[in-house]
Specification:
Elements lengths: L19 H10 L8 E6 L5 H12 L6 E5 L24 H13 L4 E6 L6 H13 L2 E8 L6 H8 L4 E4 L5 H12 L2 E2 L1 H11 L3 H13 L3 E4 L2 E4 L7 H11 L4 H13 L2 E2 H7 L2 H9 L3 E6 L2 E6 L2 H10 L2 H22 L7 H13 L7 H13 L3 H13 L3 H14 L3 H8 L9 H18 L3 H14 L3 H17 L3 H12 L5 H18 L2 H17 L6 H15 L2 H15 L3 H18 L2 H15 L5 H17 L3 H14 L8 H14 L3 H18 L2 H13 L6 H11 L2 H14 L3 H14 L2 H17 L3 H18 L4 H6 L7 H11 L4 H8 L3 H15 L4 H8 L4
Parallel strand pairs: 1-4, 1-5, 2-3, 3-4, 6-8
Antiparallel strand pairs: 7-8, 9-11, 10-11
Helix pairs in contact: 1-2, 4-5, 6-7, 7-8, 10-12, 10-13, 10-14, 11-14, 14-15, 15-16, 16-17, 16-18, 17-18, 18-19, 18-20, 19-20, 20-21, 20-22, 21-22, 22-23, 22-24, 23-24, 24-25, 24-26, 25-26, 26-27, 26-28, 27-28, 28-29, 28-30, 29-30, 30-31, 30-32, 31-32, 32-33, 32-34, 33-34, 34-35, 34-36, 35-36, ...
Length: 883
């Protein structure tokens, strides 16, 4: 484990990365012959303008002898030529014209001067005029920085309006630029979640990013584990950043501070609430002074601190009493908004209710526990699990009773804290409560015991209690929904399908529809009844929109995605992942889940690098915060992706994660784990053992009736060279009746028959579907079959296709490593052959390579017999991987 020493990362001397375009533009504008005499860098405070300007100056003048720096300041705005006081004689004449003339004369003594003017918006009138005059002479190269949004002296703005300097806007760092900068500073791999947090926290400001990163390194929050930098605690604001922000706050008047404190405590304030507390003129002034931002957030207008770190600093300065008083004021305003919402259909009622509950729980007002329960349940439906837990715990601690406890327990359970959730629910007895609340308590407790705790028998005992206590049939559908879900994840998919499809034909309460639909759709996808998945998933998803439900809605997407993948419609699977990914936006746990689904599609498409990286990041986010069944299947996919990519250590680690998460609550996913083990053994070179694990996975899938998974596992064995499953795969292909299973069976049959032509056909089918890694293995098998038959030209064509696809996928499978040998050409022969494949004539190739046409003729004379071809067209088709 690695860590920084305190102070190892400071606020100066950072590399300039991911600013290539801006750097090049500024450097070009400051170079003779560009048509400009320098550049003006315009951007928000802390965006990196000064660092960029200094980097360009260093590139122009590495020794620094011709470079001088000038700084505009607020205090110097009233003093003529104050910014140039260090460069000009102290006895400069007082008359403006004379002062300018003396300044020009003094600067001329510097020769080929490069002048960097930082914060040029603060220049006094005479300094600004001097800069304007210098920009038109061409005797000085100027690099100016200006803060966006500030008033700029007319003379300074004239420098670019007259075309003398090039105006270059400098935007905030993108997420990719943040990643480049942080990776460069830390000199190592950084966890993707850490990058996301740093990017959000710094809001694109390199200055803020430096301060936050320096603090995280200094206090041990950021540590290196296994070669990867990870966060071990919340981000904090460094003293340096606090000082910078404090100096800005000192320029605000008391009314602006009052407004900023209110917005900072709230973090985000609806416009309607803000104008109830402050007049618009004050709001406008605070925004112009850079204290707050007013933005249109979808259909709403909201105000927030101008930078997240400003909000942090201001909240830190507020005392407890002041913060609670502000929360009380905000609660009263939002109570009025909620009253107005009740009379306006389609308003933002849910959001306002949640905000009201937040302000109420942090104020000295008497809490409305019923409202807080409703807000917590809404937060749960929106998958804001931390918020749901906070609100529900507040209500429970103040006597909220069983209604509050069920929301709290569900929030805990979905965060993977099953035993905590069970402790909350076990404190209550069902007797004496409303039957609807008893049904909810029992369904939730049973689900938590089964999914989060892995205690299947205890879960079923709770359902028995519910049936003995509740008599209303509609409420009992919650218990039925749990039975369907338990059957599915226990591996009894036929029971799940039969019970689930029957239950969905009758009336059910909303949450029961969601659970039943999720499990039934998953079971249908795995049994291979692909056409039936869509309607069931749509029914469940619609129900999730009409009731308070948790993150199980995203597992509906998993069923849809698996059905489309196993059928062979990869484009539809990608669209499904994109749809659920959009639903999950802004919810970290849900984003991790839907990203894992998209990574599964990438795995089947053969995008192994992206799949492996995404699955690794998703598991980091999921491992300790989501039910173990989901962790198990995603870990299994990760093992497959990493092993197929040749990363043995990562694949072993992923298998270990999957094994740790295994249990009765994830029995249906055991075949996926066994396929993961098969790939690990393949990566180790133990192909026979890999085939054994793949067949074992297929046998487990057959026992549970998951025919699509059985076919997938059998084909994994085929990819490892097992051709003895042809009859079994033919039966499954007929049963499943879909393009992908049919191509898998063709692959197996052709491999058993050593039929190179049909193996090539299997590869083409896989390519048409989009399964490029499968196509690579089939092509590699085809090359071996052609070699066995002595068909040299066909062998090389298939081998070329296999190698091309394997490189594209990043695939290192037994088939491609053994059967996809490179073409037997020298480097020069390969170069000539490639140009022939591109359609070039011998003369064009000779001119391009700087040799004679006769030399090219000689190369082709040697290439043709090596590859078993006789014409240029045959050579071109061979290089393209065609037979």
């Amino acid at each position: 484990m690695g860590a920084w020493a305190r102070g190892a990362i400071g606020l100066v001397g950072w590399p300039v990365v991911s600013r290539d375009a801006e750097f090049s533009a500024c450097l070009s504008a400051s170079t003779a012959g560009s048509g400009y005499n320098g550049a003006v860098l315009v951007g928000e405070a802390g965006i990196g303008k000064t660092t960029l300007a200094r980097s360009v100056a260093t590139a122009l003048d590495p020794g620094g002898s011709a470079t001088r720096y000038v700084l505009g300041t607020r205090t110097g705005r009233d003093l003529p030529l104050a910014a140039f006081s260090r460069l000009l004689p102290t006895d400069t004449a007082r008359h403006p014209a004379a002062m300018l003339a003396a300044a020009h004369h003094a600067l001329a003594d510097f020769g080929d001067l490069i002048l960097v003017v930082d914060d040029a918006h603060y220049l006094d009138t005479l300094s600004a005029l001097l800069i304007q005059q210098l920009s038109g002479t061409g005797t000085v190269r100027l690099i100016l920085t200006i803060r966006a949004g500030d008033d700029v002296p007319d003379a300074v703005s004239a420098t670019w309006k007259e075309g003398n300097l090039r105006r270059i806007p400098i935007g905030g760092l993108s997420r990719a630029q943040t990643a480049d900068l942080v990776t460069s500073v830390l000199d190592g791999e950084v966890d993707g979640g850490v990058i996301d947090l740093l990017h959000d926290y710094a809001a694109g400001s390199p200055l803020m990013l430096r301060g936050v990163l320096a603090q995280a390194g200094g206090d041990g929050t950021l540590l290196q584990e296994g070669g990867v930098w990870r966060l071990k605690g919340p981000l904090q604001v460094s003293d340096n950043v606090r000082q910078v922000i404090g100096s800005r706050l000192a320029t605000l008047d008391p009314s602006e501070i009052d407004l900023l404190e209110t917005v900072s405590v709230a973090e985000v304030v609806d416009w309607d609430a803000l104008i109830c507390l402050f007049d618009i003129e004050l709001i406008d002034r605070a925004e112009r002074h850079g204290a707050i931002h007013v933005v249109d957030d979808g259909p709403m207008r909201v105000a927030r601190p101008a930078h997240p770190l400003i909000g942090d600093v201001v909240r830190g300065r507020c005392g407890v009493a002041r913060a609670r008083a502000i929360n009380g004021l905000l609660a009263r305003c939002y109570a009025e908004l909620c009253s107005a919402d009740a009379t306006q259909p389609g308003s933002s009622g849910v959001v306002h209710r949640i905000r009201l509950a937040q302000f109420m729980t942090n104020s000295d007002l008497a809490p409305d526990l019923e409202l807080i329960d409703q807000a917590a349940a809404s937060a749960l439906t929106m998958s804001k699990l931390d918020l749901a837990e906070t609100l529900a715990r507040f209500a429970v601690d103040r006597g909220g009773g069983l209604a509050s406890a069920t929301v709290l327990a569900e929030a805990l359970s979905w965060q993977g804290r099953g035993e905590e959730a069970e402790a909350v629910l076990a404190r209550y007895e069902p007797a004496g409560h409303h039957p609807a609340l008893v049904a909810r308590w029992g369904g939730l407790r049973a689900a938590n015991l089964f999914f989060a705790c892995g205690r299947a028998d205890a879960a079923r005992s709770v359902l028995t209690i519910v049936r003995q206590t509740v008599t209303e049939p509609l409420l009992l559908t919650i218990a039925t929904a749990m039975e369907v879900s338990f059957a599915y994840l226990s591996g009894d998919v036929e029971k799940s399908v039969a019970l689930g499809t029957s239950a969905l034909e009758d009336e059910m309460v909303g949450p029961a529809v969601v659970w039943t639909g999720m499990a039934t759709a998953g079971a249908l996808a795995m049994t291979g009844r692909f056409d039936a998945v869509g309607p069931v998933a749509a029914c469940a998803l619609e129900a999730s929109e009409r009731c308070e439900s948790g993150p199980q809605r995203y597992l509906i997407g998993m069923a849809e995605m698996l059905a489309q993948l196993n059928f062979g419609d990869f484009d539809a699977a990608e669209r499904t992942c994109a749809r659920y990914g959009a639903m999950a936006s802004g919810v970290p746990q849900a984003v991790a889940v839907t990203a894992a689904f998209a990574a599964k599609v990438d795995l089947e498409r053969g995008r192994l690098t992206r799949s492996a990286e995404t699955l690794h990041r998703s598991l980091d986010a999921m491992a300790e915060s989501l039910p173990t069944a989901l962790t198990m299947v995603v870990s299994s996919w990760s093992a497959q992706a990493h092993a197929a990519h040749g990363d043995l250590d990562a694949s072993k680690h992923a298998v270990a994660q999957a094994e740790q998460a295994a249990g009765p609550q994830a029995e249906v996913f055991v075949p996926e784990l066994l396929v993961g083990r098969a790939w690990v053994n393949a990566a180790m070179g133990e192909t026979s053992k890999a085939r054994w694990y793949a067949i074992r996975a297929a046998d487990r899938a057959r026992r549970s009736g998951t025919h699509a998974m059985e076919m997938y596992a059998l084909h994994t064995a085929v990819r490892f060279g097992d051709s003895g499953q042809e009859a079994r795969m033919r039966r499954l292909a007929d049963l499943l009746g879909a393009p992908l299973p049919a191509a898998m069976w063709l692959h197996c049959r052709a491999l058993a028959d050593h039929d190179g032509g049909r193996l090539d056909e299997a590869a083409r089918r896989f390519m048409d579907i989009g399964a490029l890694a499968l196509a690579a293995d089939a092509a590699a098998h085809a090359a071996a079959a052609h070699a066995r038959a002595g068909m040299r030209s066909s062998e090389l064509a298939s081998a070329s296709r296999a190698q091309s696809l394997a490189r594209q996928c990043g695939l290192r499978s037994p088939a491609t490593l053994a059967g996809g040998a490179p073409l037997p050409l020298t480097d020069r022969e390969r170069e000539v052959a490639t140009l022939v494949g591109l359609g070039s004539t011998n003369r064009e190739i000779a001119e391009r390579l700087g040799v004679s046409v006769r030399t090219i003729d000689g190369h082709l004379y040697r290439i043709y017999p090596k590859l078993g071809v006789h014409t240029r067209d045959q050579l071109a088709r061979l290089l393209a991987g065609e037979s």
